[in-house]
Amino acid sequence: MNIWQFIRPYLERYGGRMAFSDTAMTYSRLIEEVEARAAEYKQKNRMITVCGNKTEQAVDILAVLCSGNTAVPVSTEYGADYAARVQRLMRNAQAAPDTAICAFSSGTTGTPKGILLSHDAIIADMLAVSRCFKLVQGDRMLIVRPLCHMSAITAELLCALYAGIEIAFYDSGFNPTKLIQTLREKDITVLCTTPTVMYHCARRHPDGLRLRAVCLSGEILSPGRAEYLAAGFPQTDFYNAYGLSEHCPRVSMLGPEDFIRKAGSVGKPIPGVRVRIDGTNELVVSSPCIMQGYYNMPEATDKALRGGELHTGDIAHTDSEGYLYIDGRKDGMIIRGGVNIMPQELREVLLNMPGVEDCTVWGKEDENFGQRIAVNVYGTVTPSEVRAYAAACLPAYMVPSDITVSAEPAVGSGGKLRTGDAEMGRLYSIYKEEAFGQHTADNI
After folding, report:
1. What is the pLDDT of residues 276-306, one digit of tens each?
2. Among 26, 41, 99, 307, which is least packed, fewest CB within 10 Å?
3. In what helix (H) or strand (E) does residue 294 lie, and over which residues does it extend?
């Protein structure tokens, strides 16, 4: 079934309720606007890029779906060149009738992939998320992530519309103080964001917020950070979720009842999803929410989709109660002198060091050991202090070789702390142009 055909009866039921508060658009008005714009598309089964501010983009995504075409959401928050490259690639591109969205990866660590997702897959994921992350009448959601992320489209926009709640959009460059002010002014009760974003909000003593529920995703959440957030927002129900665009995106979710008891876990699979961990410790998923494949990338598709299962590329484990934990990316593993090291292990140790606010860990090529460990720390410490702390807490093979300290953490669009094999000096020189909007003095 077409997503618009599925969700329209719910929107009609909500009638005069406020849908998009920024433009005072009711649910009835939203239906009229979407269907008027959809009528402008005379051709069918085309790939249509959708850009603009978040309110415009939300309406346009729905209009493209309503028209029988495939939406290709594009955000300039990854840079104007990136957006133009995707738009050129999609010009006059044909789409299969059952393909709803082609979601492009950021392309920050290589060639961006166009992830083809069907109407049925997105609807199935939306319904499963709605059963786990309950939205109630009177809720007001602020969407902060770019609307090219499937998390923002499925788990936020579509779930909020399905529940009939009020939605506001945050288009400003990311500034924790400004975000907190927006949350207060709009009286927001529901927020979906990354652990990094939430942590930097918590550090600013956000008194007066009425956040009823917060869903964290997009990064590995350390147990220490989970406890810090729960203490900073004692009236808030925290959820920790895991997913990937290739799965529309949600795979699993940890509820507030387990947020501290199982701190750091991403919970258990959402309804309809089955997971297993293969012999290489890679997480493998089977469900109705799996992508159709990558656009014009048959080899990459065959590598990810095998035997009807999605091979996520994420290293994971479960505990004795079946709770799932994500350890890191398979392709991000550091192999130093023949020893496998997950960057997250080292990062969690360094986050406990006084004076360290955040850090990124990655591997660099090394002639003698294959790879050496590089760390960039955001905080008030020196490289020698970091090395001494690591040496006291970790085995010798995990002590980083290259340590730098920065006054600002590196995050990409969507608020994720950036890691990878690229030189961090280069990332720090460009990240402000790719982070949550335009340049701000307080970008995170």
Report:
1. 999 999 999 999 999 999 999 999 999 999 9
2. 307
3. strand 293-294
